[in-house]
């Protein structure tokens, strides 16, 4: 039966953790220290005075801290509905639904809307939440090479040729979280139209930063009958939660059939207030996007000077390759006061461990220059 205290039950977990450590893949939690080159608070809204005042005002007016139940029970607050109405208008969609986070929202959509007999086509570099949601759902799933529209066409044609009769769902990020590159959305919507397919666009890292008034890279696709879009509230919008925008009938279907929506306690009404305020800020303070664009341009020049690939966005991957070397380089920069994190498999493909440098308005141009001066020195030593 093993040791009397039952510790033998834990052996396999300890063995697994030791294996991760040997591969330099053991994760640990660490505090926020140094200049912010790691968060997704791209527009610096998480601590903005206007956001703080909005939440404080809502509390003073009696808005509850917690929803205390699911949306279909007593957890449907006026703040949720106000945010959803504002978001639908802002993004140009028929309707929006508010979820507790981006991961659960993506999982919810892909386990609910694609039906048995449908096909989900995933970009190979899409968020883990999309992979998990697709696998947990009822549709057939395949993945294609990153940003390869021809591969999307081929997969759907092959599926049809062997008897596929449902609808295809093309699932992509508009701006990829670990590579910082953009999806070919114009080509993808053409493919969706050709194949009578749906296009699901995860705008997590583009919402607030790109498009007119910060409406994202898919702004001109919203409102179409075959387009579903995810906008997270916990990145550039500085709050938490996520909004799914879609045709009204699909949102109604989610309300009635989506288990992660039906059975989960609703997000805090205070977060709905915060997210609604953030939409107002990004619409009326374009200077935030302009300042971020200047940081992106400066950092791009610094990366090019190092002879490395430039992403062209606020997400700058510095691919190192080896797990241990990537983590050592991150630790060296952290010791110099720059909060830069190392990213290892399975978050990124094997052999592509990297630094993920994130640009936000929590730093200035001098900070960006100082970081890349330090990176140049550490990179040379690491080589």
Descriptive tags:
Aspartate Aminotransferase, domain 1, globular, Aspartate Aminotransferase, domain 2, alpha/beta, 12 strands, 383 residues, 7-stranded mixed β-sheet, 3-stranded antiparallel β-sheet, single chain
In short, what is this structure?
With 383 residues, this protein is an alpha/beta fold. It has helices spanning 11-22, 49-60, 78-91, 102-112, 128-136, 149-161, 185-194, 248-257, 259-262, 269-284, 287-305, 323-335, 365-382; strands spanning 35-36, 95-99, 119-123, 140-144, 168-173, 198-202, 227-232, 242-246, 315-321, 338-339, 341-343, 353-358. The chain has 2 domains: 27-42 and 314-382, Aspartate Aminotransferase, domain 1, CATH 3.90.1150; 49-284, Aspartate Aminotransferase, domain 2 (3-Layer(aba) Sandwich), CATH 3.40.640.
Query: Which residues sit in consecutive blocks of at least 5 with pLDDT less than 50?
Result: none
Which class of the largest domain in CATH terms? Alpha Beta
CATH superfamily of the largest domain: Type I PLP-dependent aspartate aminotransferase-like (Major domain)
Fraction of residues in helix: 40-55%
Mean pLDDT: 94
Strand order of the largest sheet: 2-8-7-6-5-3-4
- Sketch the topology as an H/E string, one letter per element: HEHHEHEHEHEHEEEHHHHEHEEEH
Write the CATH fold name of the largest domain.
Aspartate Aminotransferase, domain 2
Largest sheet: 7 strands, mixed
- Rounded radius of gyration (Å): 22 Å
Task: Please identify, by name, the CATH architecture of the largest domain.
Answer: 3-Layer(aba) Sandwich
Number of helices: 13
> Pairing-aware structural class of the strands and helices?
alpha/beta
Shape descriptor:
globular
Overall domain count: 2
N-to-C span: 51 Å
Task: Work out the strand percent.
Answer: 5-15%
Number of strands: 12
